[in-house]
Amino acid sequence: MTSRLIVLLLTLLWVPFASAQSLLDVIDSEIIVETLSESEYSIPVPYQEIELQPVISDVAQTALLRGLDRINGTAQDIVITVGETVAYERLEVTLLACRYPQGDINSDAFAQLIIQDIREEAPRFIGWMFASSPALSALDHPRYDVWVLSCQSS
Length: 154
Prior knowledge:
The protein is of the alpha+beta class and 154 residues long. Helices cover 23% and strands 38% of the residues. The termini are far apart.
């Protein structure tokens, strides 16, 4: 009698799992794909290889930066040449390179900078800043903010 009860309990416990698996076997993947492709959330066509052209940029010798003192609320434009270090308040700003899209100096400029607080040993910022997206790569300083405005040819 006990063995019959065990078999009955095991059968009752196993049947829901067996039926769920059999339902998964029955579902045809093509039906799902066709249904999704007809909806507004369609499945994209397999990607096509796109040949990317290298980004060509020109080099400028001068950059125009803007510095902001958040406490005083004052902004100052900083003109700096490549290889030069300029003092802005308690920051030392060094311009390593300034580039812009080929043939259009008025469009998106990007500059490679090193910015260091004179009271600290390690630089606060080392990298590229972009005029079109200043928050993408920004200086992390509690008082000052510096960003790129443009590159200049002379």
